[in-house]
Amino acid sequence: MRKRVLSGILASEETYLSHLEALLLPMKPLKAAATTSQPVLTVQQIETIFFKVPELYEIHKEFYDSLLPRVQQWSHHQRVGDLFQKQVTLLYKPVDRVTRSTLVLHDLLKHTPSSHPDYPLLQDALRISQNFLSSINEESTPRRQSMTVKKGENRQLLKDSFMVELVEGARKLRHVFLFTDLLLCAKLKKQIGGKSQQYDSKWYIPLSDLTFQTAEESEPLPIPQAPDEELDAIKIKISSLRSEIQRERRANKGSKAMERLKKKLSEQELLLLLNSPNMPLRVHNRSGKSYIFLISSDYERAEWKEVIREQQKKCFKTFSLTSMELQMLTNSCLKLQTVHQLPLTVNKEEDESTGLYGFLNVIVHSASGLKQSLNLYCTLEVDSFGIFVNKAKTRVYRYTTEPKWNEEFEIELEGSQTLRLLCYEKSYNKAKMNKEDGESTDRIMGKGQIALDPPMLQGKDWQRTVIPMNGIEVKISMKFTSREFSLKRMSSRKPMGVFGVNISSVTKRERSKVPYIVRQCLEEIERRGMEEVGIYRVSGVATDIQALKTAFDTNNKDVSVMMSEMDVNAIAGTLKLYFRELPEPLFTDELYPNFAGGIALSDSVAKESCMLNLLLSLPEPNLVTFLFLLDHLKRVAEKESVNKMSLHNLATVFGPTLLRPAEKDSKIPTNPTQPITMGDSWSLEVMSQVQVLLYFLQLETIPTPDSKRQSILFSTEV
């Protein structure tokens, strides 16, 4: 991103230099004529007209000539701040150039890590530039983010973003602009014949007339949702195209092939961006219509509501725009916008991080700064394929100003770049729950986020940090384990335990068909977890999971009592951990390549025959345990309308856990310069594992006359 900003600066400087050169051309002959008996202009007139043009040319030429080679030989650690520092010290005229330089420095600082050697230099350059602008009473930011309206008032842009609008049951991509007095929804027109981009206004609401509606207050409108399988297919295509682009880049092949691949990738990512968000944000115009935006997370929805409500405190009068005023406002959006591009891979620089793949352990320690005692809990969100998903939730800490959760969660990352944390006040008034909106009366007390920076998370030690949010501070610790290490299945050093011990050894020792741990966990989840939102997807508390692991490993007689007192997500997490730590996956290392090949068959009859034969080839304890789990997962999916866990969601959670091979000799390549950012080859493999489990989940029955299979199913001894 830094390189892209600097490339734009170079292009701007090049244009400016050409303009200065055009001014310098007539200057010399005019100066020569000034000393003759018939001068065109006097020396004083020439000095006035061409004031400081030669000096300006030299300053900008030196700046351009120094910046160009640094951008051409770009690296992450490249310094440019010294050049800006020198330039703004010299630049006092024209004022417009200083203003532009200030805006550029704002953008550049935004994309420069605070640890970078450029950061203090750029800060100093920005300070000098801003001081100069202040001295002549002209602030740079309003110039860029405002336009003059009637009576000389300024209409400033506060926030803008690409969003999905639901229009007559169809999803439409919009660019939404929040100004100091209104909310404008616009559509970016397609560029035709090289014309510059333009916006088309769809609607606007004065902030004094805007209200937020709940599902109960508005007309019922079903939200069309793409099947999970469709979204998964899009992700597979995205991962495949990213891999192809990487191969093309390494092979240094022609740009035409690369451009074709990038275009396809852009189309698929846009499709995912359009179809993924399902959380409604309903806005209503008191004097007219209602509108619905679809957002991917509670964090973003709260962000929009907060900034709008804060600004509404300053808006009292209603108004309407003439068609000419609306057109002028819409035209100004191109210059005022702060979000210029969709969050697509093709819009990123080659050296930008593709995110982290692996497991992030997060300890939510405590919160401080609360002014009154409340019932508080936190949720954690991370991004995957550019969409944020809720991954974990702490317990409710009752009536306190200083909650001390000290809860640890293990969160799986798939190309993740940001961790978000939201702090809620728990409401116990169930009558007011608004399930259709996915929004309850639980009030967001604060929210914050932190970038998942690969260099910071490189070490094995815990990284402690504080997330500030609306006057509240939440202390957390993080530790990252990359795919390279998290893939390995290890045999337990405690042969009499159950974790990390071969499943056949456990069932033989217990004289059962299905391990005791599997039966106990499923029984408890069926008793009180079938309607838990996000069951198996939301992480349980890591300390509770470890306590249960120890209890099962030591054959603790009180394990059932412990389970009854624990959060159901911890029990689900214990079950997932058991399968993940098996020294060999439930589907076995030997048969894994065959399952991966079978699911890829295009002929449905051949696929069914192949997959069923492979399934029935599993060792007896593996097969019976899998069928026992399969029946349970189908019953969980029957409650999808409440728990939000479809067959596909369950396959996404359990597929890699049940199929991932032991990887004694890891086949996944590692890059010594980026050892913790593994990418799309892994995503494709994971998605294949998901498809295998989904195939069996979607089969109504698994028919076979095999006597061995019959004896297993009808045996009462499990």
TrEMBL record:
SMART domains: C2 (SM00239), PH (SM00233), RhoGAP (SM00324), RhoGEF (SM00325). Residues 156-313 form the PH domain. Pfam families: C2, PH_19, RhoGAP, RhoGEF. The keyword Mitochondrion does not apply. Residues 340-466 form the C2 domain. Residues 1-86, 89-139 form the DH domain. It is found in: Cell projection, Axon; Cell projection, Dendritic spine. InterPro entries: Abr/Bcr (IPR037769), C2_dom (IPR000008), C2_domain_sf (IPR035892), DBL_dom_sf (IPR035899), DH_dom (IPR000219), PH-like_dom_sf (IPR011993), PH_domain (IPR001849), Rho_GTPase_activation_prot (IPR008936). GO terms for cellular component: axon; dendritic spine; membrane. One of its GO terms (molecular function) is guanyl-nucleotide exchange factor activity. Its main location: other. Residues 501-695 form the Rho-GAP domain. It comes from the Eukaryota. One of its GO terms (biological process) is signal transduction. Keywords: Cell projection, GTPase activation, Guanine-nucleotide releasing factor, Synapse. This is BCR activator of RhoGEF and GTPase. It comes from Cyprinus carpio (Common carp). The lineage of its organism: Eukaryota, Metazoa, Chordata, Craniata, Vertebrata.
